[in-house]
Amino acid sequence: MKNQLFSYMYIYSISLVGTSLFLLLHIPLPWILGPLVAIFVLKQIHQQQFLMHPMLRNISFTITGIQIGATFTATTIDKVVPYFLPFTLLTCVIIGVCIASGYAIAKWTDIHLPTSLLGSIPGGLSVMVAMSDSTNANTGLVAIFHTIRLMAVLFIVPLIASQFFLQEGSQETASQIDVIHNSHPAWWTVGFYVIFFIIAYIFRFKVPAAFVIIPMFFVAASQLLEFPLISLHESIFHFAQMTIGMHLGLSILISDLKKAGKYTFIYLGLSCFLIFFSVILGILFAHYSTLDVATAMLSLAPGGLIEMALTANEVNGDPSIVGSLQLIRMLFIILILPIGLKPFIKTY
Question: Where exactly are the structural domains of the chain?
């Protein structure tokens, strides 16, 4: 027990050093990327295996879902509805390009076609791994290819957004927004956050990214219904982001990248191409709509809902719209894409 406690104190201390360095260098998403890099480097220096309890990770996901949900306002739905059809169309274009790229890579290399397709589409890692398990795809390579994409998105997209698409004016943080909407919430409403976590835990195998989606949905609903929930301190959000960064750092293994070999650079190149293609579509999306460029680009970026919504908050975009549109794409990929891909993969 003491050794485990010391291990947690040690990795959190190292993560805090990484966060401080990223804050000092003004690197985007310092509370996620700082710990990610720090823990990844630590693993290469020490041979000791560092572990994180799943409950700690899930609680952090829940807190982040609460943070994103708190950015929703009564006008969020009205803002999102007009963009549903054009966003879905652009999502189909991006997925179509990914499928074509996956097909081309399979033709030019010796990668199995189902493996190449599932590794090219920017869907959730767990969903694509589950699909690869149900087909004759190489599950290990699919997981590695998606890890490569995630790392590329985490470092490149926030940098592009902060350097080129930073919006003028001040954007309130999620915690500040929460305080504004809930001036005098009752302290006992913190119990609702516990209930949200329990519900997410119950449906963790039925709802994708349940620990993020379910709290985000309920907190957003409370915002829209003007039901006051107690505000969490900003330091709690930072702790959650740091824990998620540590989790990502612990998840990346050099051995996995070595297994992918030369394919690592192929899929890294594909990820970079997909990012810049999404940026171009985001600029067009913003031009033909009332969205600012940062919000439009981050909504289409092939990254995770959490990271893109938090990045939107940092660059003065609209995290509620980014979170909503990213959720729509996630549901599209999870519910519709497997149905369309499975017959094609099975016939291969």
Answer: 2-51+81-170+240-346
